[in-house]
Amino acid sequence: MAAETPSESDRELVLAAGGGGLKVVGSILRALGGLGVSILLTRLTGAAVFGQYYVCLTAAELIAQVSGLGLQASTLRFIPISIQQSDRPWLIGLVRAAVLIPLFLGLALATLVFGFSDRLATEFFSDPSMAPALRIFAVAIPLSAFANALEAALRGFNRVDLSILGMDFGFQLPKLLFVGAAVGIGYGAEGAATGHVAALFIACLVLAYLLRTQMPRGETSPAVYRLREMWMQSLPVYMTRLLRTFGGRMELLILGFFGLTLDVGIYAAALQISMLGALLPESLITASMPLISGAHHREGPSAVQPLLRSTTRWCMSVVLPYYLVVALFSEELLAIFGEEFVGGEVSLLLLGALPLMNAMAGISASVLTMTGQARINAFNSLVYLVTTIGLDVILIPRYGMVGAASAAFSSTLLLNLLRIAQVRWFFGLWPVDRHIIKPTVATASSLIVALLLSPLLSGLHPWIAMGLSLVAMGLAYLAALYKLGATDEDRVVIDAIAARVPALGRLIPDGPNGSN
Q1: 233-260 pLDDT, tens digit each
Q2: Secondary structure class of 182 (helix, strand, coil)
Q3: Which residue among 230, 340, 404, 509 has its CA within the 20 to 30 Å range from the CA of 374?
Q4: Is residue 24 scored above 60 in pLDDT?
Q5: CA proximity to 144, closest of 178, 109, 116, 115
Q6: How far apart are CA 509 and CA 81, in angstroms?
C-alpha cells in the first residue's frame, strides 16, 4: 500500500478532530470555562484570591496527572492497534486498566492531600488561609484523574468528537455556571473550588456513558491485561505528559512557594491568555496521535510525514495570528482582568510564545511517542524538568513573575528544539515544508495593517481601538490567504466544509499548486 498523500492526511486529520460546528463550539466553551472563571474571580475577588485559587487548582491537576501514570499514552497507541487486530479481550483489559488504575491511585493521593492540607498551606505555600480550598480540591483529584482517563480512551477510539462532548460540554459549561454562581454570591476561592468539583463529577458521568457506547457488545469475553506492555509504553512518557499539560504552570507552584501571591495572580492571568492560543493546536495534535500510531503500524515512518506536516501547518495557521494579537495588545488583554494586572505585559509576551513553539514542534513529541521512541521523550522531559527548576530557583526570587515567564520560555524552547532534532535524526522528517510560507505572509499582512491603523485609532478608548484593529487585521489575514489561494492540501479541508456550506468552496481560489 502506498504512503498517504498530504491531502489524504489533511482529510483524515479533519475527520479525527471532529470537524464542523461541534469542534468550534467545544473550543469556545473550553475558553469560557478557563478564561471566564478567571475573569469572574479577578473582577469580584482580586488578584490575590485568584492566585490562591489557581495555585490550589494547579496542585490538584498536577497530582491528578501523577495519578494517571501516563496510561493515556497506552490507550492512544494500543486501542487503534487492538481494533485493527480484532483483539477484543486485549481491548477490554486495556480500557479497564487505563481507567481504573488512575481512579484508585487518585483516591489514595487525594486522601493524603486532604489530611495534610493544613501543613501544605502553612509550610509549603506559607498561607494558612489556602487550607480550605486545598481540601476541596483534594476531592477533585480522583475525579480529574478518572475524567482524563475516560477522555483519553475515547480519543483512542478515534472519537475526539465524543471527548469534546464530555469535557467541553460536560465539564466546561457546568463549571462556568457553578463557579459563576458561587463567586457571584460571595463564596470566593472556596466557592470556585466547589463549583469546579461539581462540574468534574458531571463530566465523569457523561464521559463514562460515552465510553460505554464505544466498547464491544454482545458475547462476553474474558479481559486480557497486558500490564507490562502498557507500563513499557506509559512510564517513559510519564513526565512528558505532565510537562505537556503543565507547560508554564510549574512556575505557579514555585511562585506560591516563595509567597508571591500577587505575582501568582497576574502570572496566572497571563497564562490563561497564553492557553487560548493552544486550544485548537492541541486539539489537532491530540487528534493526530492515534492516526500516527495507526499509520506507523501499517506502513512505517513514510506514512507519518504527511500527518506531521499537515498538523504543523494547520497549527501554525492558528497560532501565528494569535501571537501577533498578544504582542500588539498585551496591555489591553491584561486589563480585562482588572487594573492591577496591567504591568504583566512582559510575562504575557513570553508566555504567549509557548503555544507558538509547541505548534511548531509539539507534534514531534507525538511522533516519538506513537512510533515506539517514548524513552526519548522521557529524556527530553528530564532535560526540561532540570532546566525549568534550575531557572525557576535562580530567576523567580529575583525577578518574580518575569523570572517565572523567562524560565518557562527558555525551557520550552530547549525542549522543542530537542524534539525537532530527534525526529529528524531518527526518521529523517521535518515538521514544515514550503506551504508554511502562506500563513506567515498572511500574518505579516495583518501586522502592516495594524501599524498603519495605530496612529488613526490612538485617540479612541483602548478597547475600542483594539476591537477595530482586530477586525481590520482579521480581514487582512483572510484577504492575504484568499490572494495566495488554496493548495491541494487546503482544498481537502475546504471541500470537507463546503460539503455542508457549498458557497465556501467557491469563495477561495486555487493557489499556484492547487486544483479544483
Answers
A1: 666 666 666 665 665 577 877 887 776 7
A2: helix
A3: 404
A4: no
A5: 109
A6: 39
Cα separation, 438 vs 444, in Å, equals: 10
Q: What is the DSSP letter of 354?
A: H
- Report the candidate in 406, 52, 56 with the shortest Cα–Cα distance to residue 259: 52
> Which has more pLDDT, 319 or 158?
319
DSSP of 108-124: HHHHHHHHTHHHIIIII
Residue 397 CA to residue 412 CA, distance in Å, equals 20
Residue 486: strand pairing partners: 510
**φ, ψ of residue 510 in degrees (nearest 5):** -80, 145
Q: With contact defined as beta carbons under 8 Å apart, do 98 and 77 qualify?
A: no
Model pLDDT, residue 363: 73
The DSSP letter of residue 158 is T
pLDDT value, residue 241: 64
Nine-digit cell string for 223: 479481559
Say which residues have a Cβ less than 8 Å from residue 211's Cβ, sequence separation at least 6.
95, 99, 150, 153, 154, 162
The CA distance from 160 to 163, in Å, is 5
Helices (runs of H) and strands (runs of E) counted in the chain: 24, 0
Question: Is there a contact between 252 and 267 (Cβ–Cβ < 8 Å)?
Answer: yes
| pLDDT surpasses 80 at 453 | yes
CB 188 within 8 A of CB 200: no
Cβ–Cβ under 8 Å, residues 362 and 370: no
Lowest mean pLDDT among 233-247, 349-363, 390-404: 233-247
**Nearest CA-CA partner of 420 in 410, 430, 408:** 430
Hey, what amino acid is at 369?
T
- Report the C-alpha gap between 238 and 68 in whole angstroms: 9
What 8-state DSSP symbol labels residue 260? -
> Where are any strands of DSSP class E within 172-260?
none
- Amino acid identity, residue 334? L
Q: What is the mean pLDDT of residues 375-385?
A: 78
Mean pLDDT of the chain: 78
The domain spans of the chain are 6-432
Residue 443 has pLDDT above 70, yes or no: yes
